[in-house]
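Slide 14.
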Amino acid sequence: MADASLLSGEIIHDFDQVLHGEKEQIHISGNRCGLEIAQEETFVYDLFEDMGVDSYPEVCIQTRKLRELTIIWLERLQSFRKKI
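Slide 15: predicted structure.
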């Protein structure tokens, strides 16, 4: 799911707001997935679930870890785009 790049990486700001205590929780969604970001864990779910199409399983991951992985993914995507 490539929603993070569609938001131009704005999701990092959302992670930071929750991790720094500016907001208790944030609920956002992109084209394919929804996120419930909380201080300790983030719940990621497929918006197409129960719509009669193949969907991805929901996942719960540590918020700091997901932020870190998202940054790595955005950096590598940017690097890839520079090469083409």
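Speaker note: Residues 3-83 form one domain.
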